[in-house]
Amino acid sequence: MSASPTSTLVAPVRERTKLTSRRWFVFVGGALIPVAILATWQFVSTNGIVPVSQLPSPEMVWTAMIDLMQRGIFWHHIAISTQRVVIGFSIGAALGLLVGAIVGLSKLGDILLSPTLGALRAVPSLAWLPLLILWLKLGEESKITLIVIGSFFPVYTVVAGALRHVDRQLVEAGRAFGLDGVRLFTTVQLPAVIPATVSGLRLGLAQAWLFLVAAELLGASMGLGFLLTDSTNTGRLDRTFLAIVLLAVVGKLSDSLVGIFERWAVRRWA
Amino acid sequence: MTAASATARASSSSTPGTPAAGAQASGTVSSGAAPAGATAAAAPVSLRGIGRAFASQSGARQVLRDIDLEIAAGEIVAILGPSGCGKSTLLRIAGGLDQPTQGTALIDGEAVRPFDPRSAVGFQEPRLLPWRTIENNVALGLPRGTAKAAGREQVARLLDLVGLADFAGHRPREVSGGMAQRTSLARALARNPAVLLLDEPFGALDALTRLKMQDLLLDVHAAEPATVLLVTHDVDEALQLADRVILLGHEGDTPGAVVTQTIVVPGHRPRDRGSAELAELRGRLLDGLGIDRHGSARGIETTTTIPHYPY
Ligand SMILES: Nc1ncnc2c1ncn2[C@@H]1O[C@H](COP(=O)(O)OP(=O)(O)OP(=O)(O)O)[C@@H](O)[C@H]1O
Ligand SMILES: [Mg+2]
Predict the structure, then answer these.
(1) Measured between alpha carbons, how far is B87 from B80 in angstroms, rounded to an integer?
(2) What is the ipTM, given to two decimal places?
(3) Which of B121, B125, B143 sits opposite A176 (nearest CB)?
(4) Domain ranges of chain A
(5) Which CATH code for domain B7-127+195-288?
């Protein structure tokens, strides 16, 4: 009771937090396996168990990074890739939201669009490459278009599905209280699908990074995907490893950002 | 159709409910808090030959048939009946949430429109928007075009009435089932409708709160009279609240529930919960529901002093 001077009669409620919900434990627990992998990698590559020509040591990868930094192109690779992902994802996610809303809300839209979109979704990313290069040449447009395609489908699929399954009883209650059209959408359906939509955005962003590598396979002179293929072609295995690690780290970072947003959205809307 | 609506209008003007109700409303405290332009006078409800069949694998399944019911403006009618007999379905038809397969439903002599704005529904389930606070859920019921300040005042008043003033800022998942149901009732009341349709509004409440809420409903009805259709499982509640009690049930082997009994409850509200008259009607209703009252075994007389409706 005496703990806080401002408290009234009610003692502050302090629930004992479980070990698994303490911040430091979550952090350490999540870092455990990456550290173990790094240690194994170091051990295996320096003791000659696997030849360096097949597995460069962590130190060599580090040196490759410093080397790229000194040449001033390290950040360029990351920046250009991030830019492509941001632009492509923004367009793809916006289209996914729009088309997902049409298919999820309108029976007619569903009948007309969903078979075609379902078929297009089944086409793997690499299959689009030759067509895009033929039509849009090797510039930025073809790369960004591929990323748009990649991020569109997860967002579209999740949004359409969520809208189709909004609690019928809530929608009926909304109608009974005089809502329809846009007002019904903004009052009942949109808030109901916000958590699912943010999850869809998260999936779309992950897919955008996957499609980035495919987009940079051909005709790029910069970017993480280019670094990956170019260094493999020129036998710079250390840079290949560097590119893989960077893709993992940058992808995870952007995912974490959306993850924070997602947690907020679930708390606010679910 | 024209003939039908003409009779409805004629019957509504002949009922004493309408003018009396209007006079009552203007003299009460709450009429000041009522949103301007939204105060709807109670309207009569007519159900004519209502039947409802649902499609099922084995063809159509008749749930309701031949329901004829004339409800005067401002009247409170309780609908009793065993579970699954179609009480909610009848209520939904009256509110335009469902269409009958036979017959017509009218409010104030006009056919009920889909999601009719003249009625407000208190659903059997609370159906609150989980992302809105209790307060904002109640505000959803306010009629379109209510001024912001007046709306806030009205919501605060209703929350106070249903005893949830302290929970205005809570989310539905943070309150109990009974509190959610009271919120749902407040939301329906916020509409200030001509016809109030309540589907077991007190089902999730403990006995004490239930009695309080019954009295509350009567207070609100006295202040802002609406025609009330009230579905309930509770015979005592029906007798306490209603002018008339309708018993739905099955007759013979014909599928589809009909009105098996209509009981006009004597006396004025609020009624003495312990009166002998009510006790007898209670026995008759329980009988109609097929429940043994375990009365005659103790030598209690079961003679009827109150004649069956129609008198
Ligand atoms: N949308 C629907 N589709 C098919 N059948 C339905 C539908 N709605 C209701 N029914 C059927 O109609 C019958 C009556 O349902 P209703 O909900 O009106 O019962 P009720 O009297 O309100 O029961 P309870 O007291 O348990 O709430 C039930 O047998 C139910 O299966
Ligand atoms: Mg029901």
Answers:
(1) 7
(2) 0.79
(3) B121
(4) 58-268
(5) 3.40.50.300
Residue B166: which of B142, B134, B188, B136 has the closest Cα? B134
Residue A12 CB contacts under 8 Å (≥ 6 apart), including other chains? A3, A4
Residue of A nearest to B116 (CA): A176
Going by CA atoms, what residue is nearest to atom 9 of ligand 1?
A: B89
Return the percentage of chain B with pLDDT > 70, whole number: 81
Q: Which positions 186-225 of A are in contact with B (Cβ < 8 Å)?
A: 187-188, 191-192
CATH architecture assignment, domain A58-268 = Orthogonal Bundle (1.10)
Q: How far is the CA of A197 from the centre of ligand 2 (A)?
A: 34
Query: Which distant-in-sequence residues (6+ apart) come within 8 Å of B50 by Cβ?
Result: B64, B66, B67, B68, B69, B90, B93, B100, B102, B103, B104, B105
Most distant pair of Cα atoms in chain A: their distance: 75
CB B53 within 8 A of CB B101: yes
- Give the residue from A158, A191, A160 showing the smallest Cα distance to A174: A191
Percent of chain A with pLDDT over 90: 64
pLDDT of residue B304: 54
- At B271, the pLDDT band (50, 70, 90 cuts) reads confident
DSSP secondary structure of A223-260: SHHHHHHHHHHTT-HHHHHHHHHHHHHHHHHHHHHHHH
Tell me the per-residue pLDDT of A201-234, one tens digit each, with 9 for 90 and over. Answer: 999 999 999 999 988 887 778 999 999 999 989 9
> What pLDDT does residue A130 have?
86
Q: Do A191 and B129 touch (CB under 8 A)?
A: yes
Q: How confident is the model at residue B163 (pLDDT cuts 50, 70, 90)?
A: very high
Encoded tokens for B300: 């209690």
Contact A176 B97 (CB under 8 A): yes
A10-37 per-position pLDDT tens digit: 666 666 778 888 889 989 999 999 999 9
> Using DSSP, how many helices (H) and how many strands (E) does chain B show?
9, 10
What is the three-class DSSP state of B60?
strand
| Sequence-distant (≥ 6) Cβ neighbours of residue B41 within 8 angstroms | B18, B21, B22, B25, B73, B194, B225
Provide the whole-model pTM: 0.77
B144–A169 CB contact, under 8 Å: no
